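All the exercises in this workshop are built on plain-text protein records. An example says more than a description, so a record of this kind follows:
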Amino acid sequence: MSPTVVKRTQTGVRIESSLLKVLKGLAEYTDLSLGDLLEGIVLHAFEGKAPFSDKTRSVIAQLKVVYGCELTAIDSHRLVEGD
């Protein structure tokens, strides 16, 4: 399958700190850039598909412990900025 050519835009997205650390760790683990990882997650989500295998979800669970990320999907629309 040939690559799909796209136009990318640099963006400044704010994201919860421990979640960003987990994502960066996962990007390193999967040998992807953070942007490529996020694109893959979003494209899977748009189609209602799970983006990760059981093995990768296990790695994510370990990274969440390492970086103190206790957030779950339930928190997704209830996050507010603190000091």
User: Anything to note?
Assistant: Residues 17-72 form one domain.
